[in-house]
Design goal:
alpha/beta, AAA_GajA/Old/RecF-like, AAA family ATPase, five-stranded antiparallel beta sheet, six-stranded mixed beta sheet, Bact_Antivir_Def_Nuclease, TOPRIM_OLD, 22 strands, globular, 770 residues
Length: 770
């Protein structure tokens, strides 16, 4: 059995999404404010309701007006003396829901007997809806109307007081503003939500399941006569544990912890977790067995010895008290005794310490010094803490040690869902990679789990780290994309892309992209936009051009990938699934159509491009003349209001040679000669060797722009482009260089698109009801 996918609706900015879960590890990735945290919070709210309570802001904002209209309808009906029709129908589409869809084997039906939709169901997909809804609508109506009546009384009293107040002739001061609670139904629920709402479960029909449409899930519609299931249908079915993003590492405890609190509870230090783990699984005082006899005898012997010493120590003090007339003949005599508990030995700030090796004069290394837990680096504290919590979660699920004798230990849930939020906090890059590779194996490191197919562990991790993302296969990645108001709804919402569907199963393209992204450590899954460049020179110089000339771009989250025109198109499927705004900076790569050899660009001589990106992706043109004459619209591929892809390649330039007065047309072949053509005066005197010298000589010896271009073409055949880029970076006048025209056009386009993408509301929003 496993959770196949979940559908979340009307929860914060998750208006309606589907998230497919891997049978092992699922990773939530996406740019900031894309909905990852909302999804993790929804899982905690619905699946751990006793630890994570709902609040009014969990309702999607576009539903607030409808909730307030329900309250306004109640008020108007009472004012008009009408009978108020209090029914659940107007609430249904406004309520936060989580649909849990399971894959259940034929031999596992006894775990889900309350969820089986029909008598002839024999296994397969099965669904349950968890809905946060009013517990008693009549009581909600009664208390809301009472609160509104009380608020009206206060408003009228304030108005009467203002009318009877003696006006001040010298200062026409308006009466002070008075805001009285509740102003509307959402205002009322802001304070009373928990007392009037609860989670109820409903069985779903697999036959009525609908696939997502236009990136939005289509949850099953429940009829008005649908009745909630009795009790908690997930009890005994799913065990849920989570590690939140805020872990309180390195902090001293603010109060006493309950010995029975779960190991791995939020905001606890490692020593606190260790103490909790001892209490749940190891404490010999709880349900002792023969293995605990030695420990219990040692504790009792220590207690007797300590009591004897205390009696001797307090003898003088008690004798002094007796001199005051107490105790008398019939009065009980005071005695001092101890009550030692094994847990007390761990109840201090240095229960966990770290040994520091000391080198003695003899050269022997001895672990003599110990530092308290708070003195160790946060990165190591976080790693140790998270691994320990995962172990605690596993052992709590499997009822290891003393937990096996708990009254609730009769049933082991077939599903174990573990939620980890932002594990990368305080961790170095290499440690992040180690954690995500080892986390799942820690959760399965139990003799009863290694070969088990009946007990399923599913790990869900949300992250902002490219190092974590690159250590996880595409099949496990779920990409969250942020959409502004006016695109699919009247408020900003999120969609989720299942990246297992990008390349198909075990394709050569997937292998290439996976290995490439791991070698690049690109932030592709967390960026606002991507720039794909041709070679090392562009990779080194383009960020500096942006820093010097395009400050708005410099403030955005843009990932830059060096991939080359012959391979950039391999990223097409991934870019399109992500809906990621992309600029491709590539080379024209002209060939002689007849001979097939590389040639310098020249119009009207039957040339074609050898660039696979230009031929097969954007703009899907092969003829060099068409490419040289293409306008900006041809170079852009539009997918939706926020997602476009633009290509930038070398275009004809108007240049004037140093010392000449006639303007000529130049046809650059690569980034390097395009940069030099745009800055002929600078490079004609720029000191340096290698390509710098060859370019300088070509400019000074060339008799025309065409002749200079031919010399550039020859120089670039065996020139070291990366070395050239480094020489340019060292130039004092770098900030004064003109950015190649084709790149400048692309960067200006990208800047405009990002400005549009960053707004929360698109112009001319669609009229669909959210």
């Amino acid at each position: 059995m496993n959770i196949e996918f979940i559908e979340i609706a009307s929860f914060r900015k998750l208006l309606s999404i589907r998230i497919d879960l891997s049978t092992t590890t699922t990773l939530f990735v996406g740019a900031n404010n894309s909905g990852k945290t909302s999804a993790m919070l929804a899982l905690r709210r619905f699946l751990s309701p006793r630890r994570c309570l709902f609040e009014i802001h969990d309702f999607t904002l576009c539903h607030w007006p409808a909730i307030n209209s329900i309250g306004e309808g109640w008020i108007a009906a009472r004012a008009g003396g009408e009978i108020v029709n209090i029914v659940i129908d107007p609430w249904v589409e406004l309520l936060p829901t989580l649909d849990l869809w399971l894959q259940v084997g034929p031999g596992e039906m006894h775990h889900v007997r309350d969820l089986i939709p029909t008598l002839d169901w024999e296994g397969g997909r099965l669904g349950v809806r968890l809905r946060y809804e009013p517990k008693d609508l009549n009581l909600l109506y009664k208390e809301f109307m009472a609160a509104i009546s009380d608020a009206d009384v206060i408003r009228r009293a304030a108005l009467e007081a203002a009318e009877t107040a003696t006006p001040d002739a010298e200062s026409q001061v308006a009466p002070p503003k008075l805001t009285v609670w509740p102003a509307c139904l959402t205002d009322f629920l802001g304070k009373r939500l928990g007392s009037h709402f609860a989670i109820r479960a409903y069985a779903l029909d697999p036959a009525k399941l609908a696939a997502p449409q236009k990136s939005q899930a289509r949850p099953q519609i429940l009829g008005a006569a649908s009745l909630p299931l009795e009790g908690d249908p997930l009890k005994g079915l799913i065990c849920v544990h989570d590690i939140p993003a805020q872990r309180g590492l390195g902090e001293e405890p603010t109060g006493d912890d309950d010995d029975d609190s779960p190991a791995g509870s939020p905001s606890s230090r490692l020593s606190d977790q260790l103490r909790s783990y001892w209490a749940k699984h190891l404490d010999p005082a709880k349900s002792p067995d023969p293995k605990d006899i030695g420990a219990l005898q040692a504790i009792e012997a220590a207690q007797e010895a300590f009591d004897k010493r205390l009696t001797e120590s307090f003898a003088a003090a008690f004798s002094e008290v007796e001199g005051m007339g107490y105790p008398g003949v019939t009065d009980p005599r005071p005695r001092v005794s101890t009550r030692l508990k094994p847990i007390d030995g761990l109840n201090h700030s240095t229960a966990i310490s770290f040994e520091v090796d000391v080198i003695e004069e003899s050269g022997v290394v001895t672990p003599l010094l110990r530092l308290p837990e708070s003195n160790n680096g946060l990165g190591y504290q976080n790693l140790i803490s998270m691994i320990f919590r995962l172990m605690s979660f596993r052992d709590a699920w499997m009822r290891v040690g003393k937990a096996s004798k708990s009254p609730t230990a009769t049933i082991t849930e077939p599903l174990h869902l573990v939620l980890v939020e932002e594990p990368e906090a305080h961790l170095h890059a290499q440690v992040q990679q180690v954690f995500i590779k080892k986390a799942y194996s820690v959760l399965r490191a139990h003799d009863g789990l290694k070969e088990s197919t009946e007990l399923c562990t599913q790990l869900v991790v949300s992250t902002h780290s490219s190092h974590v993302a690159h250590e996880t296969s595409f099949s496990s990645l779920r990409y969250f994309r942020r959409l502004p108001a006016g695109m699919v709804a009247k408020v900003p919402v999120s969609t989720v892309v299942n990246l297992s569907e990008v390349f198909g199963t075990a394709s050569a393209t997937e292998r290439f992209v996976t290995r490439y992204l791991r070698s690049q450590h690109a932030d592709l899954f967390f960026a606002d936009a991507a720039i794909l460049v041709e070679g090392p020179a562009e990779r080194m110089l383009l960020p500096n051009f942006i820093r010097e000339h395009y400050d708005p771009l410099n403030q955005c989250y843009i990932t830059l990938l060096e991939i080359g025109g012959s391979h950039a198109h391999r990223l097409q499927s991934l870019i399109e699934h992500l809906g990621l705004l992309t600029l491709i900076v590539t080379d024209l790569d002209t060939l002689d159509k007849r001979g097939g050899s590389s040639v310098q660009p020249s119009p009207g001589v039957e040339q074609v491009t050898n660039n696979a990106t230009l031929k097969t992706w954007v703009p899907k043109l092969e003829d060099a003349d068409l490419l040289l004459n293409a306008d900006g619209k041809v170079k852009v591929e539009i997918h939706d209001q926020l997602f476009e892809i633009r290509v930038a390649y070398q275009v004809p330039l108007k240049v004037t040679r140093p010392g000449a007065s006639v303007e000529e047309t130049a046809y650059p072949y690569t980034f390097e000669d395009a940069l030099v053509f745009e800055n002929l005066s600078f490079f004609s005197t720029f000191a340096g060797s290698g390509l710098v010298k060859k370019f300088r000589d070509a400019i000074n010896d060339g008799t025309s722009a065409a002749d200079i271009g031919k010399r550039f073409f020859v120089a670039l055949k065996d020139g070291k482009k990366a070395e050239f880029a480094l020489d340019v970076l060292e130039a004092e006048a770098f900030s004064k260089l003109t950015v190649p025209h084709y790149i400048a056009e692309g960067l200006e386009w990208l800047q405009g698109q990002l400005k549009k993408k960053q707004v929360e509301v698109l112009p001319n929003p669609k009229e669909e009801a959210a």
